[in-house]
Amino acid sequence: MGVEKLLVQDPYSRVACEVTCVENQMHISGEILSNPASTPRVSSNPL
Predict the structure, then answer these.
(1) Where on the phi/psi map is residue 3: left (φ > 0), alpha (ψ -120 to 50), or beta?
(2) I need a labelling partner for 3 at 20 to 30 A (CA). Which of 14, 22, 33, 35 fits?
(3) For 2-45, how does the pLDDT look when each residue is reduced to its tens digit (9 = 90+)?
(4) Are 39 and 5 in contact (CB under 8 A)?
(5) Which residues pair with 21 in a beta bridge?
């Protein structure tokens, strides 16, 4: 579900994303705080 769709359902939705790089590793993490009408399925396929 895209951020735009979350904001339509809940205009108070919040999205955070963080990227950290150490030596030859990159970590991408994030979170979404929202009260949508339906909860999207969490991805089980990492990049």
Answers:
(1) alpha
(2) 22
(3) 778 878 888 888 889 999 999 999 999 998 888 866 655 666 66
(4) no
(5) 26
